[in-house]
UniProtKB/TrEMBL annotation:
EC number: 3.5.1.28
InterPro entries tied to this protein: Amidase/PGRP_sf, Amidase_domain, NAMLAA_amidase_2
Residue ranges constituting the N-acetylmuramoyl-L-alanine amidase domain according to the UniProt record: 49-210
Keyword Cell wall biogenesis/degradation: yes
Organism placement in taxonomy: Bacteria, Bacillati, Bacillota, Bacilli, Bacillales
Classification via Gene3D superfamilies: Peptidoglycan recognition protein-like
Biological processes per GO annotation: cell wall organization; peptidoglycan catabolic process; peptidoglycan turnover
Organism (species): Ornithinibacillus halophilus
Catalytic reaction equation(s): Hydrolyzes the link between N-acetylmuramoyl residues and L-amino acid residues in certain cell-wall glycopeptides
Taxonomic superkingdom: Bacteria
Protein name: N-acetylmuramoyl-L-alanine amidase
Keyword terms, alphabetized: Cell wall biogenesis/degradation, Hydrolase, Membrane, Transmembrane, Transmembrane helix
GO molecular function terms attached to this record: N-acetylmuramoyl-L-alanine amidase activity
Parts of the chain that traverse the membrane: 7-28
């Protein structure tokens, strides 16, 4: 009799342990699955910069400009933290409308109806006034690092040599997300938008998105 009671008690305790340890994780996994499912149709996540990092747009959008960005100068071992880029933008009073992470996640830093400070000034088809290209463009940053030649104006050669090869260039996930984002932008603008790289706009001071960017991977 005592043995039976002991066995029943052990079974009860075992069931209690399973209930405590397994079921909460089971339901938590379901909640996570539902969360992921609910966000599958969302193209981007909002991670909006403060208003002082942008301004009201008063001109029509005519261009889309592509850039690469990282925090390789400060963290060559871990250059792709979204929070670091956000803080860099705040610190230097610059911005872009979108940022595409290495895994293809898209973050919106500035709404398109506001001007982001991503292009700077240069002589390019009438956009010679400081900030004028900004007023007419959407800026897209991709988390990436270019060739050694492209990066040496910004970081030392020994820092570049420390970078893991997987962190150089672009990922398939980024190309896929960029293509989706561009198609989304095109669908919302009646104008035929011109797409260009930062290096095409400012060839004497900028190298991004660089030689490692495969323009054939995006289609209009």
């Amino acid at each position: 009799m005592r043995a039976m009671i002991r066995n029943i008690t052990l079974i009860f305790l075992l069931l209690l342990i399973i209930n405590v340890l397994y079921l909460p994780h089971h339901y938590y996994a379901k909640e996570n699955d539902c969360f992921k499912q609910a966000n599958e149709n969302e193209l981007w996540y909002d991670y909006l910069l403060p208003p002082e990092n942008s301004s009201i747009r008063e001109s029509r959008i005519t261009h889309i400009m592509l850039h690469f960005i990282s925090n390789v100068k400060e963290k060559p071992h871990n250059p792709y933290q979204v929070e670091d880029i956000y803080q860099l933008f705040q610190k230097h009073h610059v911005s872009s409308h979108y940022l595409i992470d290495r895994d293809g996640t898209i973050y919106r830093f500035v709404p398109e109806y506001r001007v982001a400070y991503h292009a700077g000034s240069n002589l390019f088809h009438g956009f010679s006034t400081l900030g004028k290209m900004n007023e007419h463009s959407i800026g897209i940053e991709l988390m990436a690092i270019g060739t050694k030649e492209e990066m040496t104006p910004f970081i030392r050669e020994d820092i570049y040599n420390f970078i893991h090869w997987k962190n150089i260039g672009y990922t398939d996930e980024q190309y896929n997300s960029l293509d989706k984002l561009l198609n989304n932008i095109y669908s919302r603008h009646s104008e035929n938008l011109n797409i260009l790289g930062h290096n095409q706009y400012a060839p004497f001071r900028k190298t991004d998105p660089g030689k490692l960017f495969d323009w054939s991977r995006i289609e209009k």
